[in-house]
Design goal:
about 625 residues; binds ligand ME8; alpha/beta; 5-stranded antiparallel beta sheet
Length: about 625
């Protein structure tokens, strides 16, 4: 059995957690859960950073002692992690005794290494960063490059760590271990920091009182960043050299956003080199979660209303959206309309309907799960795709490609929907075809079992619901095809992604202006001759792309068999472009061309349109261009 130790940053408690903190923690949770289902021994750390001048100041502002302030703020994190279904093994607090003793041991070892010295220090200091900004990062305005706030001039006597001494060893390590810093953009950034030379760093503050004293000079408090990094070891029991420290150090993955990679990939490894301990295997950084293009910020009040979106769509939809929509490593803008579209298209339509349909057919035609006695067309292809999807998931997660991992699983979900369609399983209930019907339904359920296993790190509650509805007595983590017992009783449970009604959706999207109420229309009758004027035809969607500045519209290229057309459709909130490609739809082919938001549209796609929008399709595919009457 392999071991896997994953950490999030320990977050400052001088403000409540926001969606950025949630994103890092959810991403780490996916890794922890994935390694657990693979059978690895996992330790997952998250927690809070409770020391330093900023926390002290926030406590003063709140009229509390620093400890009382931390005791009040820390539960806002633990409560949120519970709501987000985070499966951490330890919630670290830097005010804990275990951390204090471990940090003192580490600091003593660092001092003994001979790489700590005392010197006067003066320089420009950023309070929100809690760091002296190095000479080469200073601008004429003396503004912090991260917080864009004025820097303070500070003079004090400090202890320093000889970081410069480790420059070449760090370079060597990064070159020999290409995966050490991920993604490559961050690796290149840190390599260029190394190229321009490392300065020794101060590791203590004599002007700060809220923190841990240096064991070799108790008048000085250890700099909060140096102390915080040690938590990754103190949490494991480094102080006593016992379990789980023995089993889990060094960490496999330190997960964070790109703001703090320098501390984790240069300073922390150099400290470990000084005390002769193994380095973490990977320092992994994602991009910023933004709102209207701006970084979320407790201090600047740019926040995402997670509560409303989770209340409206459910936790798993929120987790799914964050993991599916953002390309890991790049910045991503949070948009409730996209969450709504993902909910309808991927979760309710693709997955929810598949489960309902298969369970409905089993319930209607069999007593329990039928045995797969009668192989036929497409079965082998499905089995091979199941195995290939399991393998690809592993590759994607090893590369932190959460979006690609989910897309790969959904390609399989959509393939099973097509399998149902291609085999027209609902027409096979006659005695002579019933064994084949049973086999197709067995295969579909087995595919759903594997899908539930693969989605379980991302959306664990949904995965459990699916397995329960299939009738599995406990969560089954076997990744091989054909393990589903044939005698289970399936239930026809609640829809796993029920429709979100307009009222709820409006609450979740307050930025949208409500549509004016429609007048109640009386419906005029049309003659058959008038109806016949409509030219309805079958077409296939070839490409789909968003239209800039029009959140609800998609530009589609469609194939009518004899010609190709461009059509604009108002379905962007309900379908993502990639789920549309390849779909057969019905198009009003003789509608007058129109220009919608500057884009030409030659025809209209038919869809059921209420709170949700669902494309009209035929029960089975037909040749392109066929008339619909
Ligand atoms: O830096 N998008 O704590 P912190 C994505 N205590 N992630 C974001 C984010 C955003 N807009 N905003 C914050 C500290 N994060 C130190 C860490 S570790 C030894 C000490 C996440 O509360 C992201 O993970 O400022 C980022 O790295 C972290 O919060 C910073 O948290």
């Amino acid at each position: 059995m392999s071991t896997f130790y994953v950490t999030t940053p320990i977050y400052y408690v001088n403000g409540e957690p926001h969606a950025g903190h949630a994103y890092t923690t959810i991403v780490a949770d996916v890794l922890a859960r994935y390694h657990r289902i693979k059978g690895n021994e996992v330790f997952f750390l998250t927690g809070v950073d409770e020391h330093g001048a900023n926390i002290h100041k926030a406590a003063e502002n709140a009229g509390l002692t620093p400890q009382d302030y931390c005791d009040k703020m820390t539960p806002t994190f633990t409560k949120l992690w519970k709501r987000l279904n985070i499966s951490h093994d330890i919630f670290m607090r830097t005010t804990s005794d275990m951390h204090k003793r471990g940090a003192e041991k580490f600091l003593a070892a660092l001092y003994d290494s001979g790489d700590v010295f005392k010197a006067p220090y003066e320089g420009y200091y950023c309070r929100p960063c809690e760091r002296f900004v190095p000479e080469k990062e200073l601008t004429d305005e003396k503004i912090c490059p991260i917080h864009k706030l004025p820097l303070e001039w500070i003079e004090e006597e400090n202890y320093f760590f000889r970081l410069s001494k480790y420059q070449n060893r760090l370079l060597d390590h990064i070159h020999k271990n290409p995966q050490f810093i991920y993604p490559e953009s961050r690796r290149n950034e840190l390599l260029s920091v190394l190229d321009s030379g490392l300065e020794d760093i101060s590791i203590s503050r004599s002007s700060v009182s809220w923190g841990i004293s240096l064991p070799f000079d108790p008048k000085h408090i250890v700099y909060v960043w140096i102390e915080a990094l040690m938590n990754y070891m103190t949490a494991l029991g480094y102080e006593t050299d016992s379990e789980p420290y023995q089993t889990f150090w060094p960490a496999n993955v330190h997960m964070m956003a790109k703001d703090i990679t320098r501390f984790h990939a240069l300073i922390w490894p150099a400290m470990l080199m000084a005390v002769d301990l193994p380095l973490p295997k990977q320092v992994v950084a994602h991009g910023w979660l933004t709102k209207d293009g701006e970084a979320l910020s407790k201090t600047r009040g740019i926040v995402i209303d997670m509560d409303t979106d989770i209340d409206t769509y459910g936790l798993d939809a929120f987790r799914y959206y964050l993991l599916r929509e953002f390309s890991f490593g790049n910045d991503g803008d949070y948009r409730p309309a996209r969450l709504h579209a993902r909910y309808n298209a991927d979760l309710a339509n693709d997955l929810g309907n598949l489960l309902n349909r298969v369970l409905g057919l089993v319930n209607k035609n069999f007593d329990g799960i039928p045995a797969p006695t009668t192989p036929g067309e497409f079965d082998d292809e499905i089995k091979e795709m199941a195995q290939a999807t399991v393998d690809k998931l592993d590759e994607h997660l090893n590369a932190f490609a959460f979006d690609a991992a989910l897309e790969t699983i959904w390609e399989f979900v959509r393939r099973i929907n097509r399998y149902i369609q291609q085999t027209q399983v609902w027409t096979l209930a006659k005695p002579e075809t019933k064994p084949r019907m049973g086999t197709i339904l067995y295969n579909s359920l087995e595919a759903l079992r594997l899908i539930s296993l693969m989605i379980s790190p991302f959306i664990p509650e949904t995965a459990e619901k699916i397995q329960k509805q299939i009738g599995l007595p406990e969560f089954d983590t076997t990744a091989e095809w054909g393990r589903l017992p044939a005698d289970l009783t399936v239930s026809r449970g609640e829809p796993i992604f029920p429709r979100v009604d307009t009222k709820q959706q409006k609450q979740a999207q307050p930025e949208k202006t409500a549509k004016p109420k429609q007048e109640k229309k009386t419906i005029d009758l049309v003659s058959f001759a008038d109806f016949q004027k409509l030219d309805l035809r079958i077409a296939r969607i070839l490409t789909a792309e968003p239209i800039e500045g029009a959140d609800r519209l998609l530009k589609l290229q469609v194939d009518l068999g004899t010609e190709k057309r461009q059509v604009v459709a108002g379905i962007a909130e309900h379908y993502t472009p990639e789920t549309l490609v390849g779909k057969q739809v019905i198009i009003v082919a003789n509608l007058e061309p129109a220009t919608i938001r500057g884009v030409e549209s030659h025809g209209m796609i038919l869809a059921g349109s209420a709170d949700a929008v669902v494309l009209a399709t035929l029960e089975t595919e037909m040749p392109l261009g066929t008339q619909v009457r």
